[in-house]
Amino acid sequence: MKRRKFLQSSAAAMGATLPLPLWSPGFRFPHQDIDVDAVTGDGREITLGGAPIKELDSRMRGRVLLADNDGYDEARRVLNPSFDKYPALIARVTGTADVRLAVDFAREHRLLTAVKCGGHSASGKSTCDKGLLIDLSGFRGVRVDPSGRRAWVTGGSLLGRLDHEAMAYDLVTPMGTVSHTGVGGLVTGGGFGRVARKFGLAIDNLTSADVVTADGEFRRASPDRHPELYWGIRGGGGNFGIVTSFEFQLHQMQRQVTGGAIFFPIESARDVLTMYADYGREAPDELALDLLVVLPPGGAPGMVGFGVCYCGDPSGAESVLAPVRQVGTPMIDAIEPMDYVALQRSGDTDDPRARASYLKSGFVPEVSSGLITAIVDGVEGHPNRSTIMFIQHSGGAIGRVGAGDTAFPHRDAFGNLGLGVDWAFGDDPSEHVAWIKEVWTRIEPHTQGFYVNDGDPDAYENDTVTNNYRTNYRRLVEVKNTYDPTNLFRLNANVEPTV
After folding, report:
1. Helix (H) or strand (E) holding 86
2. Using N-to-C axis directions, what is the helix angle for 317-325 and 269-282, rounded to 10°?
3. Nearest to 125 by CA among 134, 135, 116, 136
4. Residue 448 φ then ψ, to 5°
5. Reduced to 3 states, what is the DSSP secondary structure of residue 353?
6. What SS3 string covers 226-255?
7. Distance CA 391, CA 277 (A)
8. pLDDT value at residue 32
9. What distances in angstroms separate CA 157 from CA 23, 115, 197, one per listed residue?
10. What is the rounded distance in angstroms from the CA atom of residue 444 to the CA atom of residue 367?
């Protein structure tokens, strides 16, 4: 007790002589008044003076980090280490006020601007060289109203937290398949999930959103307020601003589902894909069958099978899954009753930055015989890389929303196909990237457009983006003209303004 009183009195005495205690969370060592090299959104080289950076830092509750500050290296990294970029400065925001300050700073200096939530961007768009990175990772929180079946999620949150909070009341909304994915990027691109065939995409369950647009203003987007912005953020990606809060509709669902994975030898690929082509269209909404082709490095046996989630009546699970099991004798059958939140975490990566990767993706209208042949003949293993191909099962409730009801137009797709390779970080990537691009030339003719959350760097050429949004593109341009006429938010599947 005496020791505690001594420490308290000593701290009080020191506090009387210092403007702010050194150990206080609010204490910040001032940035040096040094110039910082940076680039604008259109690539022009500029110099930022130390004074405006220091002023931004002093006004934020969060921190502004420069390259020589502690925490900069951690903040600049994204999950794919192939994208090893160095922003001129990083704004680590803690709330909407900080977001507005960072956006104002970016606009006033016309800075190249990246926004990072979970850092999962397959194309590396959540970071940048010599621009401003707005880091939302310190802006996380979820609130659930079980009686109203609503959830409010802050802009930097990871989807696993929403699953955890909502399922405490046997409530759910579709939220991806990897729990450390950022809600902001996932949702604004569309938002697939294990129960999306039952309840629709994440954007189909978004009832409103708070958005800081390119002018730094706070706007509530909903069917009644800024309805065009509300339409645009549901599938238009990060083109229009930074969402600081999402409001979701929740649905009643039992916590226990039938889920897991089933795999067959790679030699069964044609039979598995043929079954999938037929049954994938007929399967009940409660069943999600995500196709997986896995070829590990080093000559380990390849596998083809499914990630499974059945959220219907448990007594019907065996009959629903019968067509899958009738394909043949599985190498692995790990389908069982399990906790939904545990299933959502089952695809998490403990050390996601240990391996570099490259991904190609496209929507498939059907699993045609031509596509099956392209997959069976083209996808192969390699001693020094992992190869994975997936088809994220669509249809069901996803397909019963009109193509123009949200900015996401691919309502008619059978699924979202992705072909990815990864290798030990530090190895030469050229051989692996060249291989996937060559194989993709045989798969791409069977695809239509691409999922903006899974696009590779080549997918974001303007003509490709224009075609990807189909008849929704013109309307997206008008939303862009209204809310981001200078194209501040361009590191995305970019809709270019015309004003």
Report:
1. none
2. 150
3. 116
4. -135, 110
5. coil
6. CHHHHHHHCCCCCCCEEEEEEEEECEECCC
7. 11
8. 60
9. 27, 13, 24
10. 13
**Number of Cβ atoms within 10 Å of the Cβ of 267:** 12
Which alpha helices (DSSP H) does 234-331 contain, by range? 269-282, 317-325
**What CA–CA distance (Å, rounded) separates 286 from 487?**
40
Query: Letter for the amino acid at 3?
Result: R
Structure-token match 């691919």, residue found:
410
Distance of CA 330 to the CA centre of its chain: 32
| Euclidean distance between CA atoms 175 and 267, whole angstroms | 33
Tokens read off for 63? 């921190």
The Cβ of residue 397 has, within 10 Å, a number of other Cβ atoms equal to 17
Q: What is the DSSP string of 141-200?
A: -EEEETTTTEEEEETT-BHHHHHHHHHTTTEE---BS-TTSBHHHHHHH---BTTHHHH-
Task: Fill in the DSSP letter of residue 111.
Answer: B
Written as one letter, the residue type at 484 is: D
* Local mean pLDDT, 10-residue blocks, the chain (499 residues): 38 36 39 84 96 96 96 92 94 98 98 94 91 96 98 97 98 95 96 98 98 98 98 97 98 98 97 98 98 91 97 97 96 97 88 75 97 96 93 98 98 97 89 94 96 84 87 98 98 95
Please list the residues that pair with 309 across neighbouring strands: 259, 288
Contact 381, 106 (CB under 8 A): no
Cα separation, 453 vs 191, whole angstroms: 9
Residue 276's nearest CA partner among 434, 391, 134, 444 is: 391
Angle at 284 between CA 234 and CA 198, to 5 degrees: 30
Provide the token pair at 462. 């303007």
Angle at 345 between CA 340 and CA 349, to 5 degrees: 165
* Angle formed by the axes of helices 369-378 and 430-443, nearest 10°: 160
Q: Taking the CB of residue 297, how many other CB atoms lie within 10 A of it?
A: 16
What's the rounded Cα separation, in Å, for the pair 400 and 396? Answer: 7
CA 242 to chain centre: 14
C-alpha 337/C-alpha 349 separation (Å) is: 22
Q: b/e string for 28-67 if b means 16 or more Cβ within 10 A?
A: eeebeeeebebbbbeeeeeebeeeebbebbeebebbbbbe
Q: Which residues contact 25 (CB under 8 A, 6 or more apart)?
A: none
Residues 6+ apart with CB under 8 A from 474: none
Count of CA atoms in the C-beta half-sphere (13 A) of 320:
21
**Cα–Cα distances in angstroms (integers) from residue 148 to residues 167, 250, 264, in the given order:** 14, 9, 44
